[in-house]
Amino acid sequence: MSSRFRQLLNDVRDPNGSKEPADAQFERPPGGGAPRSGLLHGAIVSGVALAVAVGLIGSSVKSASRRLEARGSTGAQKVATAQEAEVAYCTADFKTVLERVLHSCGLATTTERRGCKPADIKTFAAIDDADFNALFQPLKERGGVIMFDEGSDVLDEAGQKLLDERWFARQGARYFFVVARASRTGTPDQNRALSHRRANSVLLHLQQLGEDSEEELNQRVGLLWLGNEYAQLTGDYCAWPRSREQAPCAEEPINRSAFVSWVDCRL
Amino acid sequence: MNRVRLFAWLGVAGALWGLVFAGISSLDYASHLDRGLHDLHCSFIPGAEASPVAEGCRVALNSPYSALFKQQLWGGVPISLFGLGCFSFLLGHALAIGYSGPRTSRGAGVLYALLAGSPLVVSAIMFSISWFELGTICKTCAGIYFASLVLGISALGVLVGSWGNRESLSGRSFLLAAVVAFGMLLWVLAPSVVYASLAPDHSSLVTECGQVKVPKESHGALLSLPGKSPRKHALFFEDPLCPTCKSLHERLRNAGVLDRLDVELAMFPLDSQCNWMLDQPLHPGACAVARAGLCAKNTGQFMDWAYANQEDLAAAAKTGGTLLTQFLSRKWGNELTTCMASRATEQRLNRQLHFAAANGIAVSTPQVFIEGQRLCDEDIDMGLMFALRKLAPELLP
After folding, report:
1. Ramachandran region, residue B193 (left: φ > 0; alpha: ψ -120 to 50; beta: rest)
2. Do you find a cis peptide bond into A248, omega within 30 degrees of 0?
């Protein structure tokens, strides 16, 4: 204890020079210097406790500072970010074809005319008919086949209903595909034009819903019209969700259709 | 054993107990200065293993009452540090009284009673806040409350035991009392001063979490929470069943910040029922409650209600039946539940989720953008007031 502090204690204990303490707080115990020793012990213990506490806190704060610096130099922690959906069927092959078609058919940019005719698809997809159809197999539950009358591009009530159902079940998808076809009845030129009109009927209905601007539809809806020249559907597709479910179905009528589906792939 | 001595030793034990718990609490607080999320030692047993859940302690840690000077220092100065200094001092003081024993004068007893009783007063206040405001008691805090109670009993015991030792008080007695009281003040402040002087500066970090990419939702699908006197625009992504969102909402409301904000709200339920970004529902039922929020006539009122009843809503949702719908319709009517099931509502919620995807926000809630500047996740809890002061001081009272 410093002499100045000791002096203060002595002054307080005996302000009048008396041997008796003026303030019994630091009174002597029997046997001598115990009160002073008690005060001393108390002060030492308080000091040590504070020193230990402050040391620990200081060390913890410094340690946190070092971790903060290290964190800054190693970059921010990786966290999942919100994105459009990507599901299991988005294989590399599927995405390759999808990407080619999207870029080539004008979805990736808004300046080009949207849509792909059969010749384009053959060129850009660069796969044969069966492989092309196989890519869409996983979309059986997600998509739907909108059926048309022979030689017609009129979207009937059942077709509109199915289209609406599919369109509003977007979930996390980025692209909506419309793949229109025609049966083998008629010439390839006529069928090419017919399937184009069918694709446009679907698009027109989506526009009439008024939910999205033209620009948004341009960026979201992929139109493919295949006529009867490429990737014709087999009769197996009659088992897919389709409008006119009660109507007879075979290879001819199932190709008088537009297949529609959201595609849950990121590109 | 003499009564004064007995109660003084009780005070020593109480101070030691308080020292341990205030130390644990302060160290837990200090560890978060690295902006990371750490486990908390939330137990009545000193030295028990830290827990990642520690719900009551986490609530207390993130509450506005856990620290002072939160606007000036990231996270503020934890009040447990004041306790740490206080218990350190009282440990020595109780020891000195213990040595003095039966010769302790009335004046010394009164002084000890005042000083050793002070933690009990503070603890009583903090306990009330914890119980009535936060609705939970943090176990580490309870350790401090208990230590304060023991010291309070010690204070009373020493006071009663020394009452008979009357002595004439002189000016010097008062001077010594003042020195002792001042010493305690120094002890109380010392850990806080050291903490504040060593704490890292987070100023540059609060603006490093990016900007909004797509500020507007083109279909007008977002909700509006207009403040009474808005000074800044904010974009919130919230999940009505997310406890952190609730905590943030309440803290902003209580601090008057929501009144100064013009908030656009996008629902971002962490529920795989509608949110494709999750494999599992983190908050089951959140999609349904989010749809209810979209249908409510007054979004602000609905969100206040949903957050206030969050636990009940979550419990109802977990039953998996119609309980949640019944709960909602009982409060808001059948009109709301009919609207919830509509295609338009589903479409609107889907648009909000796509808006989140377009902005590439983190798949966690809440996400907050003030005038386009993202509030870092790390700043949403402990550093909220500090970050707000840096980003938009106009929002603070």
Report:
1. alpha
2. no
pTM summary value: 0.81
Query: Residue B26: closest CA among chain A residues belongs to which residue?
Result: A57
Q: What share of chain A is helix, strand, coil (3-state, %, to 5)?
A: 50, 10, 40
Q: How far is B395 from chain A (nearest CA, A)?
A: 27
List B375's β-bridge partners, or say none: B368
CA distances to B107, B121, B347 from B158, rounded to whole Å, are: 11, 17, 71
CB B296 within 8 A of CB B267: no
Q: Do A172 and B353 touch (CB under 8 A)?
A: yes
Q: Helix or strand or coil: residue B377?
A: helix
> In tens digits, what is the pLDDT along chain A, a chain of 267 residues?
444 445 444 444 444 444 434 334 444 444 344 456 778 889 999 999 999 999 999 999 999 999 998 876 555 567 789 999 998 888 888 888 777 777 766 565 554 546 666 666 666 666 678 878 888 888 998 999 999 999 999 999 999 999 999 999 999 998 998 999 999 999 999 999 999 999 999 999 999 998 888 888 888 888 888 899 888 999 999 999 999 998 999 999 999 999 999 999 987
Q: DSSP characters for B111-172?
A: HHHHHHHHHHHHHHHHHHIIIIIIS---HHHHHHHHHHHHHHHHHHHHHHHHTT------HH
Chain A residue numbers touching B361 (CB-CB < 8 A):
81-82
Residues of B in contact with A209 (CB under 8 A): none
Shortest Cα distance from B30 to chain A (angstroms)? 6
Q: Give me the residues of A, 42-61, that contact B with CB < 8 A.
A: 42-47, 49-50, 53-54, 56-58, 60-61
User: What are the residues whose beta carbons fall under 8 Å from the beta carbon of A19, sequence distance 6 or more?
Assistant: none
Rounded Cα distance between B15 and B95, Å, is 10
Which helix or strand (DSSP H or E) is residue A5 part of? helix A3-13
Collect all residues of chain B within an 8 Å Cβ-Cβ radius of residue A14.
Answer: none
Interface confidence, given as ipTM, is: 0.85
Spell out the SS3 assignment of A36-48: HHHHHHHHHHHHH
CA distance B95 to B89: 10
A72 touches chain B (CB under 8 A): yes
Contact A95, B119 (CB under 8 A): no
From residue B176, how far is each of A8, A24, B164, B385 by CA, in Å? 9, 12, 21, 41
- What count of residues does chain B have? 397
Cα angle, residue B83 at apex, residues B182 and B105 outer, rounded to 5°: 50
